[in-house]
Amino acid sequence: MLFSRAVLGFLGLFFTASALLLMFLSLLGGARNSNPLNQIYLLQVDTSNIPNAAATSRWTFWNICDVNENGKSQCGKSYPDFPFDPPSHRNFGTTENIPQAFIGTSHYFLTSRFIFPFLIIALFFAVVSLFTGFLAMCTRVGSYLSSLMAWIALIFQIIATCLMTAVFVQGRNKFNANNQTAKLGVKTFAFMWTSVACLLISCVLYCLGGSVGSKEAGYSGREHRRRGFFPSQRSASVQSNKEANP
After folding, report:
1. Where do the record's region annotations for Disordered lie (predicted)?
2. Residue 90 falls within a domain, yes or no?
């Protein structure tokens, strides 16, 4: 057999751990002014013509950050599930030089606020899948349980990543159309989409690990039932009959 349950379980565990690392990096970007978290952000915009804003602003899941001369984020106080809503008091608190598409709508606020809870749910089930992954290396039940947890994590991670992509790509386009240079945070988007791929691979590996050896096990059981519970006594009886009637 090319791949044993232990090997498939270990590979599933590896990809689950990889997905978790990338998800945590994406989530914690901007939470602290330390490397590499000060290089991870969602959207960077030239906001030099907006009152109460820095020359360049970066949105993260926790706040809006300034950018220093080294190109690193300088973030203040953190607020979980920080919204992307430029004209509101939560961001700049003004409509001056804010693209018209952001004014009078709650689309960006609501969409950006849903990313955080979906990501947290995905992290929870991915962590559960990581711990049950140790059982997946030696038991079929552990493999299928890890696969189930990874599938649930994958679903919520896809939702969070799609929402993030939709709202911040739209935001970038609106700022660029308003002659305010904007770009996406490449690291965050790469981490989030790569974690989706890692979770998908781990789901498949756990499922394969659960199916390993199932046919052989079922065949042995049928053979045992055909032989009966007392094969040795029956064999001895047949042998004695043959000796009595040569």
Report:
1. 216-246
2. yes
